[in-house]
Structure prediction request, 384 residues.
Amino acid sequence: MDAGVHLPLIDFGGEGFSYRRLAGTVDAARECAFAAISANDHFVFSAPWLDGPTALAAVAERSGGMKLVTTVALASLRGPVPLAKALSALDILSGGRVIAGVGPGSSRADYEAVGVPFEQRWQRFDEAVRLLKPLLQPGAAADSGTYHATPVAGLSPSPRQRRGIPLWIGSWGSEAGLRRVASLGDGWLASAYNATPEAFTAAMKHLGGELERQGRPPGDFPNALVTMWTWITDKRSDAERVLSQVVGPLVKKDPAEVRGRICVGSAQECAELLSRYARAGCQARPQHSWQFLLRGHAGLPAAGAWPVMAGRPGTGRVPAGPVEVPPSGCVPEAEQAEILAGVLAGVELGAWDRRIVGWLAGWDASTVLTIASWIARSRAAGPA
Prediction:
């Protein structure tokens, strides 16, 4: 099982924006052998929002071998040509590590900000994806459409990836959305707060049928679960505050609708939720199967939470449950990366002193080791 993290693009409590904040997140993810970093896309939002594609470009050099993923980019509003140009440049500068996740967006405010009727979002998105896909391929060109024009000769320079940039499509799991994924996409991005593990299972089955009708093997089709907001706490009152005061207002949902769907709660509850998702759909190859969990960032305010990706392990097997590790002090900062790397590599926990620093305010050693151990055990399970 691989792991990745969403860049901290939202200013929740006045902590501000800086390259240092982005770099700290990427460094932690890289040191913990995560597979990807991601960013999604809003022009306007209820909280200050740093531009996602720009943030990915800013940290590309220090991201090691991690994939750079948009989850999702607003293809119909940015336009196929500007988006393809930006993603191709990022793919070249990163050595061919971009995955283009796209969606129409669900915020009317984004459409109003650029003068596009919200009611046209699906027609515009379908056209944008059809035009964008060839523009992400080396040497390919696309025809113009009703809403968007494209250059006759295509774009140059081409992306670094020989087969082009993979195009994953976001869908909440409707039949129409999954048909779109099967016919136009190279992968599926599901939404955690709009799904449950049971709904994910049903959607995977339906997607498999749609792929077969398209003559595409469903077993090779990758997916990931995004918008997995995460806040680990043993205090029920703290979890309820995050749901009601932070996540609910931001995603415009009643807290009851997202409770139990996202990783807000104790480490045990979050591990159980992710294990249910692992059991819900683990058919693709491991390199296409990501479990995106929160990686710590010092200074995150107590009332904050940030959206992270969550994807399915591809081993076909899941751990029996989280490892119970009692907290026992701290270790020097210089040893943190070494210890976490050992845990994530599947090293027997008994070989360590069972001590670690939680890199998030409010994270104790038990929580960090519980989640790291769950990741390690999933990796150690190997292919089914």
User: Anything to note?
Assistant: The longest strand covers residues 223-232. Residues 357 and 364 are 7 Å apart (CA to CA).
